[in-house]
Amino acid sequence: MSHIFKKQLRKILFVAASTLLLVACNSSAPPSTTATSGDKPATSSSTATPVNNSDKKSKQDIRVQLPFLKQSTDAALIVAIEKGYFAEEGLNVTYERGFGNADTISKLGTGKYDIGFSDIYNAMEFNDKNPNDKIIAVGIYQNKGPYCILTFKENGIKTPADLVGKKIGAPIGDGARKLFPLFASEVKVSPDAVTWETMEPKLRETFLLQGKVDAVSGFYISIIPAMIKNGKTMDDLQIFYYDDFGLDFYGNGILVKQDFMTKNPEAIKSFLKAYFRGMQELVKDPSAALDLVISTDQSKLMDREAEKLRLKLGLERMYITPEVEAVGFGGVDPKRLEKSVAQTVTGFKLKPVTAADIFTDKFLPAKEQRMVPPVSDRKPLL
């Protein structure tokens, strides 16, 4: 019995010692995680992809407001975020949708956002009212303004002169509507010769389709895809592009408040470097960029064909122009910019300013870093 008891005791002591050793080993090991070295970090459609929390904290947060809902024409920003170009520059970039160019500038002016994507002409009007709190463009990503008047050929409006006596629909703050007096001057008609019908942006195309107005003003990158989606064809449309009638305006730019510009010069340089790198990627492979934008659409409501047409119009008429081929993405032709600024001063009845009061190129990357990729490197948009 004594022999059996001793044998059982040794067995119990062995099990206890093994248990204590296992506990000690586990307490000294690092805590386990659900990710492995091969896992992709969690991402969102509006946030750069940090590797971990400490890495995110080391980056400077940059808040961006878009001009409107996220669209395919925002592809350069999305590419730069999702491919980590901003993160490489030490930035954590987030964005939110906009509610029109004027609203984006207004919110940028309040300091809610660090960077706004909007046009310099609305910014000029803001600066006229807020001379001590100015907004400045640090780069232009749309070389041509998307302003137009659009109608149906069946309405019998074949030339701008045929707009006389007609009803044009647009939201009150619409850029093309605000610039209409300048357009009217160029085409030799009185700006008071038309009647304006005001509606919410989402109802603009509906009013035209229902015949409540004879034409609408707005951005052709918004109106044309909407019309095609509603069953119209390009042959059904009569479009008066403002830049075909003497208003050679720039489109949207990358805007900051003067105070932010003074305090964050390096962040602005880093943002522009990463953004125009994204633009180059967009031009090289627009189909991949389009698919990336759609993949980040959390609403799952994006129509790929409509967004494809929008991006096609942007690439052909706004992003890749002879001027951009010469000066690179983000730059301007000083004489052209000066002329459009002077036209805006006259049209908006503003205090005199120069191009230097609304635009600076001192934060742009070196020209060779933001050139348009050669044609041989560009894939078609499919």
TrEMBL record:
<dbReference type="InterPro" id="IPR027939">
    <property type="entry name" value="NMT1/THI5"/>
</dbReference>
<dbReference type="GO" id="GO:0016740">
    <property type="term" value="F:transferase activity"/>
</dbReference>
<keyword id="KW-0732">Signal</keyword>
<keyword id="KW-0408">Iron</keyword>
<dbReference type="InterPro" id="IPR015168">
    <property type="entry name" value="SsuA/THI5"/>
</dbReference>
<keyword id="KW-0663">Pyridoxal phosphate</keyword>
<dbReference type="GO" id="GO:0009228">
    <property type="term" value="P:thiamine biosynthetic process"/>
</dbReference>
<feature type="signal peptide">
    <location>
        <begin position="1"/>
        <end position="29"/>
    </location>
</feature>
<feature type="domain" description="SsuA/THI5-like">
    <location>
        <begin position="75"/>
        <end position="289"/>
    </location>
</feature>
<keyword id="KW-0479">Metal-binding</keyword>
<dbReference type="Pfam" id="PF09084">
    <property type="entry name" value="NMT1"/>
</dbReference>
<comment type="subunit">
    <text>Homodimer.</text>
</comment>
<comment type="similarity">
    <text>Belongs to the NMT1/THI5 family.</text>
</comment>
<comment type="function">
    <text>Responsible for the formation of the pyrimidine heterocycle in the thiamine biosynthesis pathway. Catalyzes the formation of hydroxymethylpyrimidine phosphate (HMP-P) from histidine and pyridoxal phosphate (PLP). The protein uses PLP and the active site histidine to form HMP-P, generating an inactive enzyme. The enzyme can only undergo a single turnover, which suggests it is a suicide enzyme.</text>
</comment>
<dbReference type="GO" id="GO:0046872">
    <property type="term" value="F:metal ion binding"/>
</dbReference>
<comment type="pathway">
    <text>Cofactor biosynthesis; thiamine diphosphate biosynthesis.</text>
</comment>
<keyword id="KW-0784">Thiamine biosynthesis</keyword>
<feature type="region of interest" description="Disordered">
    <location>
        <begin position="29"/>
        <end position="59"/>
    </location>
</feature>
<protein>
    <recommendedName>
        <fullName>Thiamine pyrimidine synthase</fullName>
    </recommendedName>
</protein>
<feature type="compositionally biased region" description="Polar residues">
    <location>
        <begin position="42"/>
        <end position="53"/>
    </location>
</feature>
<keyword id="KW-0808">Transferase</keyword>
